[in-house]
Amino acid sequence: MALAFDEYGRPFIILKEQEQKSRLRGLDAQKSNISAGKAVARILRTSLGPKGMDKMLSSPDGDVTISNDGATILEQMDVDNQIAKLMVELSRSQDYEIGDGTTGVVVLAGALLEQAEKLLERGIHPIRVAEGYETASRIAVEHLEHVANKFEFGVTDLEPLIQTCMTTLSSKIVNRCKRSLAEIAVKAVLAVADLERKDVNLDLIKVEGKVGGKLEDTELIYGIVVDKDMSHPQMPKQIEDAQIAILTCPFEPPKPKTKHKVDIDTVEKFQTLRKQEQQYFDDMVQKCKDVGATLVICQWGFDDEANHLLMNRNLPAVRWVGGVELELIAIATGGRIVPRFQELTPEKLGKAGLVREKSFGTTKDRMLYIEHCANSRAVTIFIRGGNKMIIEETKRSIHDALCVARNLIRNNSIVYGGGSAEISCSIAVEAAADKHPGVEQYAIRAFGDALEYIPMALAENSGLQPIETLSAVKSQQIKDNYPHFGIDCNDVGTNDMREQNVFETLIGKQQQILLATQVVKMILKIDDVISPSEY
User: What's the whole-model pTM score?
Assistant: First the structure.
């Protein structure tokens, strides 16, 4: 029993009728958990593949997001059920580790749960089902190694990387520009990649967007784009061979850290104080000029007096630049971030071949381009689009393409898409099930059936007859012993994914199977749901 008050301040009593609530245990709890997982998978199922539908998500404050990226949809959804939250975490894990396949991993987990429910109804113990799934996942992952192909790429031969990124982008809203965006993503990754160590730091790639223009205007800039302009309208808009001072100290007189009070009772004292302030500004600007700086980029602001002095001394400046952008500028230009004017030396200046201010359309929006930097290992992908939603979705799509290119540099093994890898794994798992005499063979066979949900969903979303199409492709794979036949989602006229150039990364596909199996095992082992009030 609890006492509460309504909006008029009148008290009322809440009775918690715990005796009327029935706690879920055993098979009922497991079925309830499976239903929650299947409900989340059902939402994403229609978003799978190149012909998948988009979801529109509206936030409480009225912001609208349109996306078919599984991780984004689940992040934006308001999920209360704890098992459904596990599915959200599953998609997030795939996004953090691989960057692509966030929809497929949830659909696969939902299929595994659906098959597990049938086995539980037949009286098979959940632990046996979980063990069978674990065995089947190992068989599938090993089989993927056998059907995978390796391809060599280099700085001159980028086509394999571009084709793989195009496969990722073909299921996004931006698929009409997938070729140009894939090329931009690959060039950006190779610009920051360390090919000897097979390592890519995606933090060096900045993705910036500006409403206006069209998607085809998206460009790759070998440098940094900052959403700022020169602090004074009369400062030069283009600086060649710039020597850049990168400061985190403000252009203003130092302030005492203790409480203080200044009494000014005569005009002379005020003039002395004003001259001292001017001298501070003058010394700061002169210090920057003395070390040879031709552009100042400052993390903090400065008042009109400092701005006027900088303009008179012919020293262009940019203010209120964020900390992350400041770090990228320092990396790109080879400069050092200086926290105090006294530490400013010529060696700490960054160098850029060209710094220019560019305006867009009739809105007078301006951005600063820092190009031809001393160290080109920091690049910017600058996205244009008709509205904010298109730009945000393009950013998410570019992120997926960047992650795929990074994964291929780390491990250049690929499997073919269009559901061909899943069908091939399903055939291998079903063949292996006969070698296991125990109850686990039912679970292993069920795992093989669950793998077929992915190609079936691809066929369904493409407007094909799902069962008929899957049966035809599966029989073709078995007959020709060729694992690269998949669903022809784009009506090209051939089911050979090698001919269609539909690739996926091997590590991404393996991660999908392993993560989905782990989460399903966890859900199957939960046989009691206890709320906090029952502790």
Answer: 0.81
